[in-house]
Amino acid sequence: MHDSSSTAGNVNCVLAEVPTTYSHQQFAVGETQQELNSGVWFGDGDYEKAFDGSVFTRVDENGSTCKLGMEFKEGYVGQLSQVKYFINYISNRAQYADNLVFEGYNTADATGADVHFLFNVTNSVHEGWNYHTFDPANKPNYRYYRFRGLGNASGPCRIYEVTLSGLEVIQDNNPTYACMPKVIMNGEPSVSSSSAVTFENTKTAKLTAITPRYGSRLGGETITFTGTGLSQTLSYYNIQIDGITCTPTAVTSTSVACTSGRRDSFTTPSSLSIFVAGSGLVSNNNLVFTYVFKWSEGADTWGGEMAPMDGETVYI
């Protein structure tokens, strides 16, 4: 909310990003590779030991058709990028190999074709952390995920720790998404709007390229951002790279260029924000510009010393 522009009769706010299954795939809305702890874990026996954050406690369920999993809240799915599981000790690989599968499904009582196989634990399973990373272009989207024993040997769910990584998103594959705004005051809902706010793909600009991808920390370089849905009004742009203003200099229907500023400190993480007045933020589409120390910048790069010359040894 912008307090300075709100009045007794009007409340003004900045829209938050809305990660849906569609917007995340098309515009990279939302962060990836977050450990997902927003769901509810379930399973057989003392299954909670697989999700307690400790690699020293083991699920002591010995059933051959056991289950361990997570359920997301209604209307949401987990868009997974990675699954990892920790096994402290293995005496017989057959306990896990080709005897434990990972599955996804969308209804609690799903069976048969409604349960989707995602991967199986193979003979490469080993002590320590085991990883399965999904194709970024084909991430699974389900409300329920589980490990399930196939019944070939006892104890396939005797796992020490399980972590799901990815993003919890709204289960919606449409290019538009409408939601009803509510005003909450002092922790209590006070006003509900009768008009929906609709997010549309046609109003969401997206980057497709950055040229160059690297530039001098001294600034003064021209950076061109290419994309779709961009405004052609130069004065509408506010571009920030690592929190430093990149001054807009030129614009076309498919690109905007700016002159980079100087970055004196590297204590803050890299970031990119392109704001267009009247349209909001442009999707970075996971593209970034990186400030670097250039070899050719002499003393600025080499700690006050001259740049290395031909034949000298450099340790990086």
What's a quick, concise take on this entry?
This protein is mainly beta. The chain has 2 domains: 31-170, Galactose-binding domain-like (Jelly Rolls), CATH 2.60.120; 205-300, Immunoglobulin-like (Sandwich).
Description:
By secondary structure, this protein is mostly beta strands. The protein folds into 2 domains: about 30-170, Jelly Rolls (Sandwich), CATH 2.60.120; about 205-300, Immunoglobulin-like, CATH 2.60.40.10. It is about 0% helix and about 35% strand. The protein contains 1 helix and 24 strands. It has one helix at about 20-25, and strands at about 35, 40-45, 65-70, 75-85, 100-105, 115-120, 130-135, 140, 145-150, 160-170, 175-180, 180-185, 190, 195-200, 205-210, 215, 220-230, 235-240, 245, 245-250, 255-260, 270-275, 280, 290. The strands form 7 sheets. Strands 1, 4, 7, 8 and 10 form a 5-stranded antiparallel sheet that branches. A hairpin with a 3-residue loop joins strand 22 (about 270-275) and strand 23 (about 280). It starts with 20 loop residues before the first helix and ends in a 24-residue tail after the last strand. The mean pLDDT is about 90.
How many helices? The count is 1
Q: At the first level of CATH, what is the class of the largest domain?
A: Mainly Beta
* Low-pLDDT residue intervals, each spanning 5 or more residues: none
Mind telling me the CATH superfamily name of the largest domain? Galactose-binding domain-like
- Share of helix among residues? under 10%
Percent range for β-strand residues: 35-45%
Could you say which structural class the secondary elements and strand pairing correspond to? Answer: mainly beta
CATH topology-level fold name of the largest domain: Jelly Rolls
Distance separating the two termini: 46 Å
How does CATH name the architecture of the largest domain?
A: Sandwich
